[in-house]
Amino acid sequence: MKILALSGSLRAASVNTALLRAAARLAAPDSTIRLFQGIGALPLFNPDLEASDPAPVAALRAQIMAADALLIASPEYAHGITGVLKNALDWMVACEAFVNKPVAILNASPRATHADASLREILTMMSAQIIEPASVTLALVGAGLDEDGIVAHPEISSALHAALEAMRAHLHAPR
Ligand SMILES: Cc1cc2nc3c(=O)[nH]c(=O)nc-3n(C[C@H](O)[C@H](O)[C@H](O)COP(=O)(O)O)c2cc1C
To answer: Is 74 a pocket residue for ligand 1 (Cβ < 6 Å)?
Structure first.
């Protein structure tokens, strides 16, 4: 099972990126979770540029197409998802890379209800398939945990592990 992870934060010490990196370490042996590295290199979305297919956009599209599922975590900025993540999603609207793509959403903050709702609305509009049992909210913002701390934290790592197992069950379920 190949899972591509997208973080909506470019911060080096991002809680959301740490959460996705921790998920990669907790993944089952038959699964790989790889963080997409080029989200900050995407040009600002401009429909006029779509025909030229900028290299970072082509890389994102190819990695999404090759993935069995996506794992997305984004901070809430001013009651929305970050511009970084919205920009990446806007690039993927016309190429339909998200159509029927299973997606789990990890929300690192119980306060970030607006961004979570907005991300769900955007993904639904893009015809992605949100894996509800694998989409969880964890109280990480302000908890002072980095990637190692998340993996070592008994409750948080077990909630994350359960979400990943739910994702795995969803992907292995007969259709
Ligand atoms: C510009 C800006 C706007 C923010 N707006 C909100 C907000 O509306 N709601 C909220 O819960 N947190 C808000 N925050 C707090 C971030 O969501 C929080 O710092 C989060 O940890 C950032 O994610 P990261 O650690 O992955 O970069 C905001 C932070 C910044 C920098």
So the answer is: no
